[in-house]
Specification:
Blueprint (H helix, E strand, L loop, with lengths): L1 E10 L2 E4 L3 H15 L11 E8 L5 E9 L6 E9 L8 H15 L4 E6 L3 H9 L3 E3 L11 E6 L4
Parallel strand pairs: 5-6
Antiparallel strand pairs: 1-2, 1-3, 3-4, 4-5, 6-8, 7-8
Length: about 160
Amino acid sequence: MVRFRLVHHSLHHTTRYTTPASGVLPVMRVLQMACLPHDEPIFPDNGWWWLGHSLDNNQAVAFGILEPSQQWLDTAYLSRAGVLPAWRGQGLQRRLIALRERLARRQGFVWMISDTTDNVPSSNNLIKAGYKLIEPSAPWANSESLYWSKKLVKA
């Protein structure tokens, strides 16, 4: 079993760690490097970070980041998430997607966007969560990326 906690949020240059920063930043770095070895770790100034810990031994096993879109005011961005290899296949990424969607709705966002590059499991999790492939007019990732969106509020 894994418990997720919001450990950082920052909007409009007001940052609040729900866990001391000295404990969050190294854990986020290690998880990002273990889960996404080809990417540099990121620590967005504006947004929300979650950590998932094993209830058995309190080991950090997953993380997720949500940011406001830099292009659209009514849109939140699933910027990064990862689950340690030994913990994959248990629905943790889908839980992280749902957690971030709930917070985005509470914050008043209408749309969610994300991108994947060479990551079939993440793409499949986005599809299962109701995301659709899009072709953005201003792509924000690289040329091999797939782009995803989901409307959070019903018309």
